[in-house]
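A common beginner's mistake is to predict each chain separately and then try to dock the pieces by hand. The better habit, illustrated here, is to supply every component at once so that their relative placement is modeled jointly.
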Amino acid sequence: MELKPRSADWEQRVRKSFEAQAFMEHLGARMVHLEPGAVDLELSMRPELTQQHGFFHAGATSSIADSAAGYAALTLFADGTGVLTTEYKINLLNPAAQPTLVARGRVLKPGRTLTIAQADVYGLSDDTQVHVATGLFTLMSVAGMKD
Amino acid sequence: MELKPRSADWEQRVRKSFEAQAFMEHLGARMVHLEPGAVDLELSMRPELTQQHGFFHAGATSSIADSAAGYAALTLFADGTGVLTTEYKINLLNPAAQPTLVARGRVLKPGRTLTIAQADVYGLSDDTQVHVATGLFTLMSVAGMKD
Amino acid sequence: MELKPRSADWEQRVRKSFEAQAFMEHLGARMVHLEPGAVDLELSMRPELTQQHGFFHAGATSSIADSAAGYAALTLFADGTGVLTTEYKINLLNPAAQPTLVARGRVLKPGRTLTIAQADVYGLSDDTQVHVATGLFTLMSVAGMKD
Amino acid sequence: MELKPRSADWEQRVRKSFEAQAFMEHLGARMVHLEPGAVDLELSMRPELTQQHGFFHAGATSSIADSAAGYAALTLFADGTGVLTTEYKINLLNPAAQPTLVARGRVLKPGRTLTIAQADVYGLSDDTQVHVATGLFTLMSVAGMKD
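With all components supplied together, the output reads:
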């Protein structure tokens, strides 16, 4: 499936919106890949992202998965619309304590109102990649909401 | 359904584990209610918890929902077991920008291995309460994992 | 939350649409309760609804949960729109082999485009009620689709 | 990821269990592919599988997705254990009215207690394949339950 942006300005718009997500900055997330229908976000392990056993908190894992899915959707939205997550589901496949966590958001089905995306999260160390989580996200295109 | 703790030490254990969740401290979450099968967590609005439109980021909302559900489950776990979220699903019903966000985690079905919990998130201001999100969580009891 | 139908004809419309769901007839489902925002559907135990251990198949349980949630939503839709399920999530809490299975669909958040509903399924016998499943459903209002 | 059956008898066991699912026979489902960690099930369009607009009912779509995921998991289970679906989530991407509906269940993460599988459903006609639904399933291995 070829995914075509409806806005000439899609790349700039996604980068600006991501920079405006104060929560992503608070977590330390970086956008490391961006193309139509696909966004990757990375987190480096820091103590303040962990739960009680020293693994990445499911909330941190889910947060970058959600933003990766949402921005993958936004790459395809028309001008003058904004993106909101309406729901998602995530399965946490393996506890993660690798140096880097990457969330890969990919659009499965673009739509005028609803876009469905998948996000997979991997824990990366020097020579291994562990599948940490997989999720399905429904993103809504909201007219008149600046993004 | 009456929910009975299997550990005499349940309250102390939950409080200690919550204090050890560095991620919850990073978000500024507080445990404001605790009884067998039920935990409430609160967040105060802060710019670093927002997304690009100034609402609480879905990741922040989900993170306290997940911890509230997980600790509601842990109140009922046997000694010598720890809690991990295996999966969850959340519907974001309304964007939230209220001064306070509260997540109410409630056990729906306790079990030796799997516990199912619901969490509802509300935005609170002086005189209103808005239903922000509702989710279903599967929590796993893991033997030999300290909690 | 008071839920108000937008169509004067809501009751007739829901009953006619349900009767047109050949799949519900194939399962033997009956509509036993109907009010704005709420629909209950029942199934009687029959061998052809079971999985390999003699319990109701998760597919049968989910099917009446889905239709109950969908019709609860349709009670609130404007004239000239139809209902489609866009996604759902269900937790199967207990295996069920009771004589009667009832799915209770309830609207949590009505909306012009998206409506969120919950459905709980119970197994009923003479003197007991077992919580069999709980689910969250997103229903979409589609203009120009007859229902 | 290479997926290895733990039971020498895995193929025979899955086929026998599927034949014992009266609900699958009631829907008319056929098992058309079977290997370790992967099962495909097919349905032919019949009026009794439809909802009110003539599309496959979401319940029928979900039912074969659930059984495909469950049997994909069962291919990897140890002798003397049975399979139960504990929860799933499904996104309905496109309404389907093709002559054939196929659900492809694939194990994402095998486990002693919990196995996570994905199922994708496609509508097939002579020369097209439409992505109808995608879902995530949690399957539980239950000791002492014959399968």
